[in-house]
Amino acid sequence: xxxxxxxxxxxxxxxxADIHALCTMGEFSGGVICMYMLYLHEVxxxxxxxEMVGFVDPSQLGALxxxxxxxxxxxxxxRFQNAKKGQIFMLPYxxxxxxxxxxxxxxxxxxxxxxxxxxxxxxxxxxxxxENGIKIYNAHRNRSSRKSILWxxxxxxxxxxxxKDCAIFIMRFMKEIVEDRNLEFASKWxxxxxxxxxxxxxxxxxxxxxxxxxxxxxxx
Length: 220
Description:
By secondary structure, the chain is α/β, with parallel strands linked by helices. It is 42% helix and 12% strand.
């Protein structure tokens, strides 16, 4: 994967078990999500939006096997290093057995949190990792941080229907953000509407179909 996707060069492996899980709506690993982010990166390039939206490698962020909190914050700061004014970054985060999406605007020091279970913020550990990443980024740029970094919990997002849907849901969240040229996801999901937002199986299948067509290019 070219370094413009995650800010680093990396090889990405996708295992047969992950492909089977995606086909059967089961649980799959971050490798599937990374390949979808590569696809979305190409969508952004075609739309000339690469400087508006960036991605962070989830294998550098997770609660398990991704280093201590300081190491993860430093990785975030390095990824933000070349951020354009107003650019947002999408951070898929696995707290152990559950995927969530965090969207960060480091320039405005604003963080948007999306949990497919529509839970409240997940606690001090992840919040500190992201906030310290922004503070380190500001220090590198000789810019002072605001006293309190702003977190916004997107309580209006659709809620997953089973205990295995979280990964496909955050992929769908990323799809909708990338396809919105005005990046108005916050105004859409910040509050619960009178009409409950839901994802149908057709909505989720649209993500799986795009993923399959994209990955097949590497096998033909």
